[in-house]
Design goal:
It is built from seven helices and no strands. The protein is mainly alpha-helical. α6 packs antiparallel against α7. The protein is globular and about 45 Å long.
């Protein structure tokens, strides 16, 4: 029995119920909207060449994430599979790890390397938790606090000082 047979298609499509879509698409809307708003509000950050290079890497991660949202999202919609869409946040976490690793290499600050490792570990853990919504969302929440909010606040204070 294939996915195009009635019974299986209905069970697969059940993963796209409104409450499940909020889990999959809600964080994406925030992730893609917040950086744009911050850029408009505060303008470009000043700094030395290394700061500009780090900013360029994080900007490239953002643009790459946007492209991947379209690529993975369009596939998830065609397949009617939330699990396919939930790969996207895992990829974004891995890209964040890459960006923080670049920051570590350029700044030679160990805490930046630890943040990168945290993002990499989060991506791997999330991949194993895709079928467990509560654990998946909890992992996202904890990682956003530990690896985005706290390091972001530290970096913003350093740039404003």
């Amino acid at each position: 029995m294939g996915l195009h047979d009635g019974e299986e298609t209905r069970s697969v499509c059940a993963c796209f119920q409104p409450d499940r879509r909020a889990v999959g698409f809600g964080p994406t809307v925030i992730y893609l909207t917040l950086p744009t708003w911050l850029k408009i509000r505060w303008g470009p950050l000043a700094g030395d060449t290394v700061a500009k290079a780090i900013g360029a890497v994080f900007g490239a991660v953002g643009l790459t994430s946007l492209v991947l949202a379209v690529v993975i999202g369009s596939l998830a919609l065609r397949e009617h599979r939330l699990q396919t869409w939930l790969i996207f946040p895992c990829v974004v976490m891995a890209l964040q790890g890459m960006a923080w690793n670049v920051a570590y290499v350029l700044r030679k600050q160990a805490w930046m390397g630890l943040v990168g490792l945290g993002w990499f570990a989060t991506a791997i853990v999330m991949a194993f938790l895709i079928d467990n919504t509560a654990a998946y969302v909890s992992t996202v929440g904890v990682s956003m606090f530990l690896f985005m909010l706290i390091p972001g606040a530290v970096m913003m204070r350093a740039f404003r000082a």
